[in-house]
Amino acid sequence: MQKYENSLEFAKKKDCEDVLRDIRERFCIQENTIYMDGNSLGLCSKDAKEALYHVIDMWEKHGIGIWDIEDSKYFLYQKVLGEKLAQLINADGDEVTVMTNTTINIHQGISTFYKPTQDRYKILVDDLNFPTDRYAVDSQVRLKGYDPKDAVKVIKSSDGNFISEDSIIEGMTEDVALILLPSVLYRSAQLLDMERITKEAHKRGIIIGWDLCHSIGAIPHDFKNINPDFAVWCNYKYLSAGPGAIAGFYINKSHFEKEPGLAGWHGNNKDTQFKLLNEFDHEQNAHGWQTGTQPLFSMAPLEGVLNIYHEVGMEKIRAKSLDLTAYLMELVDERLVKYGYKIGNPREDHNRGGHVCLEHEEAYRICKALKDHGIVPDYREPNVIRLAPVPLYVSFEEVFRLVEILEEIAINGEYEQYSNKRTLVV
């Protein structure tokens, strides 16, 4: 039975009933633009701007004294933000910190946990994860004197779109020391069963880390139940903390006593940090994995936007996300399939992330045409138009109008006037 109606009136009715409709006003919506790229870079919020401007003002007013004001809030900013982020994944506040970027945090996690032996020296990955994860894994393997062709065990997709969880578990052989996987596949939006996979890894004595880049802020995670060893993520996608915003890092409290693979002075115990000793005095929580001085201007927008997330709650965000993406998929089925479009992501709620993967053989040129219609999509090779109706600022009416324009582009063959030559940022 059809759940949605194919009409503008229905879309407007859904927006009127939306409990999150007023939150949209907190974001900097651009006129005549429908933003569907929040899974790559989230929209700026007014809360984020205010938080950043406040820190700039504090720097202007206090200079170096900024480290001491507000009970040393900015010297301990990673603690403040870590506690806020921890609530999104149901972790303890001291298990989460913010630092550097996703790739460096992967290096930090692997260098901490990867202690290869003659019998157990392999790192298990999949072949669909975002390439930076693989680059970091290969680098860490080489640093230990191994050849990635031997020491990196790749679980291959059978169809180029999805990864079999059973295949991952079957790949957990006795020679595997560590696993790194994505929570949501960036190209196909497949959401992996993190709890099942993590438990299977731990049964075999294998360390497991997760890359949450395409799920943090879109999907509520329960790390009390999942219980991973470590996790990394960026904060500029669904969390809208700004271009290249500081990244997130989680380490399970059971590992607090471990020495960080990459040590730095901001990971030092705060009681002895300014004694400037040459011997590292590791802080026994996630902040002990810090390295250099925290970049306040990269951190402040995150504080602002997290206020919105805490006000709304992840359950409401996920509920609307599932509603918006289901609505988009049904409209695609009804109006666009006849023109060569098809859905390339899982349909089931429990197996789908926060974006829809619309496939078409002319996807790249269609994306160019969409931009000239005021639609901001995201393209991924070889044929995917990624569309993320982020629930905090995308409406049902915008989803309806998006499908109208996709249909118009196909009917009129508008994409044919565009080149297939890739730009620097596709």
From TrEMBL:
Positions where N6-(pyridoxal phosphate)lysine occurs in the chain: K237
Recorded GO MF terms: kynureninase activity; pyridoxal phosphate binding
InterPro entries from the UniProt entry: Kynureninase, PyrdxlP-dep_Trfase, PyrdxlP-dep_Trfase_major, PyrdxlP-dep_Trfase_small
EC number: 3.7.1.3
SUPFAM superfamilies given in the database record: PLP-dependent transferases
Cofactor(s) this protein cannot do without: pyridoxal 5'-phosphate
Reaction(s) catalysed by this chain's protein: L-kynurenine + H2O = anthranilate + L-alanine + H(+); 3-hydroxy-L-kynurenine + H2O = 3-hydroxyanthranilate + L-alanine + H(+)
One GO term describing the cellular component: cytoplasm
EC class of the enzyme, as a word: hydrolase
GO BP terms in the entry: anthranilate metabolic process; L-kynurenine catabolic process; L-tryptophan catabolic process to kynurenine; NAD+ biosynthetic process; quinolinate biosynthetic process
Matching Pfam families: KYNU_C (PF22580)
Biological or metabolic pathway of the protein: Cofactor biosynthesis; NAD(+) biosynthesis; quinolinate from L-kynurenine: step 2/3; Amino-acid degradation; L-kynurenine degradation; L-alanine and anthranilate from L-kynurenine: step 1/1
Ligand binding (pyridoxal 5'-phosphate): T102, T103, F130, P131, T132, D133, D211, H214, Y236, W265, T293
Keywords on record: Hydrolase, Pyridine nucleotide biosynthesis, Pyridoxal phosphate
Subunit structure: Homodimer.
Stated family: Belongs to the kynureninase family.
Function: Catalyzes the cleavage of L-kynurenine (L-Kyn) and L-3-hydroxykynurenine (L-3OHKyn) into anthranilic acid (AA) and 3-hydroxyanthranilic acid (3-OHAA), respectively.
Name under which the protein is recorded: Kynureninase
Organism whose genome encodes this protein: Neobacillus bataviensis LMG 21833
Gene that this polypeptide is encoded by: kynU
